[in-house]
Design a protein that fits this description.
Length: 731
């Protein structure tokens, strides 16, 4: 019944707009907007969600520009209805709330009535948040009575009764059922007669009147078979099955439950969802291409082949020595730069000389950090992979202290390398904030999803609360914002067990086109002592760390503080031991509707690969070949490995592959040039760069060469297989 109501709302939009056109003379621009909204509604009725969303975007842009609150409300409502139809209920709720803001400005009670009704439908019958849904239904009743819409009053009371009955509050729901039974002949129709009989059956089943309950359930099924509204028929079978089960008639209960499943499967139209999901992925990929960082590429670093592993202990010692060498060299360079800067004040000539030396040292330091990080990631990939292989192939080593120490050191070293790279970029002023359009809700939820595994480790939950008054699209650097939120939330999850981390986002004030957004990251974890609160933002500081715990490198909060400095913002902290922690900061973003041309459609896709996946790995490092091949085959994929780009071109002439994993730095011909030659052959197979380079260093050239995505070694195998599934499904 809910999906039918969404379509009926679309028809209401068409009729209401047609009436408005007759009643008043509008400009050409208003007529054009009306045609667009009518067309979007028709496409929604036909289940052509891709076209409906596309037309709705155009109509929304024009109506906002024309300051037409009524048309803006219709456009947002149509977008919300599309998302409801494809089961994206959180997005539907978001856009219905946007529609309600403009409906309030237009003072149109009919629109408010319909929007509240649809929100009630979603919360009651999809989100199962019945009290919240009933609250929206009560608002619907208020507007229905105000505009004297008797039919809507009848339907709303039916829904309220149904919601109360679903949660077992039959006493609260019965007055609504009594109203329905009294006015059924006057306001009811063939489409809801099955639902009315079903509700009576549920009530008398609760009262213990089995004879009446059976009669109403059978009438509901009979009426449902004669009606085009098959969703009510399915629910009638479901409720009748529950009633029969309680009576002990298990055979009849099973028959009705099977009928419910059969009708539900017929109603579920996967084809229209797939069509909408593909459209959403294409829009998402286009948006990502526009927002990729533009840094100059510094490469020419040559992969060094790691010597054959002798023993686990020797390998552990080598990694420890490299770590100490890296830290010593970095601190030595920093001390040298400080001494050089102190000498700059002596003379003007010395100033020029020292400045040149400092710039040269900075370049050398950046090159050194980039080279060392690349060289460390390559053997780390082998260390992590071989360690996992040892655990899989030699179960007796699962409790080995040496193996545990090796895994700990590898993870610690990788985290340290990534954090030092980030600090190095900020200190060298190599980070420039981007000004691109983004949806703040999408970014926050992306952070939430990426940290879900970490949350589960400590049995935590993550909640997101976003102010509906925040504009749908803002202009700013979404990547740096995500880094800040990611570091703060992950830090909160580490020091919280069996608790909750909440991300609050609120519009604080507006100054011209600048919208000041207040962020608050709140947890109920162990808290921070007052004497430690000043030093937690310093480099390499770790508070509350146990000897047996891995708490990271101590650079996360330092990175947050420095990134906020790029936004001309600061961070505040409120905490006490055993009372949780709250971090707060405010960032101004630009809101400019003229720059916002299209909506971001970020539909998450759950893709599974039914067929055997054939993977080609192009990698010259033999240890990395072994690790990658084992990882791929462990997921039941077929894997072929070649040593260089020319060998890849040769095998692609003979064999088809679903995906190509391409190393970048190889002898003879590198990964970029190999990809270009593959694309010149007309081969469209997705290519993923599997590299130890920092992503920002190679993104621009990778995109221009025809590479579809980049994964940095060492990588999370789950992330790799998710990217493979998405690329294969969209190819």
């Amino acid at each position: 019944m809910y999906q039918i109501r969404i379509v009926l709302f679309a028809l209401f939009i068409i009729n209401f707009f047609n009436d408005s056109v007759v009643a008043q003379t509008k400009t050409f621009s208003n007529n054009e907007i009306t045609k667009l909204t009518n067309q979007a509604s028709r496409y929604l009725k036909e289940a052509n969600f891709e076209k409906s969303l596309e037309i709705s975007k155009i109509a929304l842009h024009k109506s906002i520009k024309a300051n037409d609150f009524f048309a803006t409300t219709i456009s947002y409502s149509t977008i919300a209805a599309n998302y409801a139809e494809i089961a994206e209920f959180d997005k539907a709720i978001f856009f219905y709330n946007k529609a309600m803001l403009y409906a309030t400005k237009s003072t149109n009670d009919t629109l408010k009535n319909k929007i509240n009704n649809n929100l009630g439908n979603i919360y009651c019958f999809e989100k199962k948040q019945y009290l919240k849904g009933i609250n929206y239904y009560e608002k619907t009743l208020k507007y229905s009575q105000k505009i004297a819409d008797s039919s809507q009053i009848f339907m709303t009371k039916l829904n309220i009764a149904w919601a109360y009955f679903d949660v077992g509050h039959f006493e609260k729901g019965y007055p609504n059922l009594e109203f329905i039974n009294t006015h059924n002949e006057k306001f009811g129709n063939k489409s809801n007669v099955a639902a009315v009989n079903m509700l009576n059956g549920m009530y008398y089943a609760h009262q213990g009147n089995n004879e009446k309950a059976t009669s109403f359930f059978l009438n509901a099924i009979k009426d449902g078979n004669q009606s085009s509204q098959k969703s009510d028929l399915s629910f009638a079978h479901l409720e009748f099955s529950k009633f029969l089960w309680k009576k002990g008639d298990y055979k009849a209960a099973y028959v009705n439950l099977s009928k419910y499943n059969e009708i539900t499967e017929e109603l579920y139209n996967t084809e229209k969802l797939d069509k909408a999901n593909v459209a959403g992925i294409n829009i998402q990929l286009e948006e990502y291409k526009r927002e990729i960082d533009k840094f100059e590429i510094e490469k020419e670093a040559q992969l060094q082949i790691m010597e054959k592993s002798k023993t686990i202990v020797v390998l552990f010692m080598v990694i420890s020595l490299v770590l100490l060498l890296l830290l010593y060299t970095l601190f030595k360079n920093n001390n040298f730069r400080k001494k050089s800067n102190a000498a700059l004040s002596k003379t003007n000539e010395a100033l020029i000389i020292a400045k040149e030396k400092a710039e040269e040292a900075s370049v050398l330091k950046s090159q050194f950090v980039s080279t060392i990080s690349h060289e460390l990631r390559t053997p780390l990939y082998g260390v992590v992979g071989i360690t996992n292989m040892l655990l899989d192939e030699h179960k007796e080593l699962a409790n080995s202290p040496h193996l545990s120490s090796l895994k700990f050191s590898a993870r610690y070293l990788l985290s340290l390398v990534n954090d030092i790279l980030q600090i190095n970029k900020i200190e060298d002023n190599r980070i420039v904030l981007e000004n691109l359009t983004f949806n703040i809700s999408d970014e926050i939820n992306m952070v939430k999803n990426s940290l879900s595994f970490l949350a589960k480790n400590n049995n935590n939950s993550i909640a997101v609360k976003i102010d509906a008054a925040i504009p749908e699209y803002l202009i700013g650097d979404k990547l740096r914002l995500s880094q800040i939120i990611m570091n703060l939330v992950s830090n909160a999850l580490k020091f919280t067990r069996n608790g909750k981390v909440t991300i609050h986002v609120k519009l604080e004030k507006i100054e011209g086109k600048s919208y000041f957004i207040a962020f608050k990251i709140e947890d109920n974890g162990i808290g921070i002592a007052a004497e430690d609160q000043e030093k937690i933002f310093e480099k390499f500081v770790q508070v509350g760390r146990k000897e047996t715990d891995y708490q990271g490198t101590g650079l996360g909060l330092s990175i947050v503080k420095q990134l906020l400095g790029l936004f001309n913002s600061t961070i505040s902290l409120q905490s006490a031991l055993d009372q949780g922690t709250v971090f707060k900061f405010v960032i101004p973003f630009e809101y400019n509707p003229a720059k916002t041309i299209e909506l971001i459609n970020n539909i998450q896709v759950d893709i599974t690969a039914p067929q055997t996946i054939n993977v080609l790995v192009v990698e010259d490092n033999h240890i990395n070949q072994l690790v990658t091949k084992k990882t791929i085959e462990k997921n039941n994929y077929k894997c072929s490995v070649v040593d260089n780009g020319y060998a890849a071109l040769e095998i692609l002439d003979k064999e088809f592959f679903d995906i190509i994993l391409m190393d970048i730095n190889m002898p003879l011909i590198n990964g970029f040039e190999t990809t270009r030659k593959i694309r010149l052959k007309g081969i469209v197979t997705p290519i993923v760069a599997l590299t130890a380079f920092d992503k920002s260093e190679i993104t621009e050239e990778a995109l221009s060469a025809g590479i579809n995505d980049i994964i940095i070694k060492p990588f999370d195998s789950a992330k790799l297989f998710k990217i493979i599934a998405i690329l294969i499904a969209t190819n």
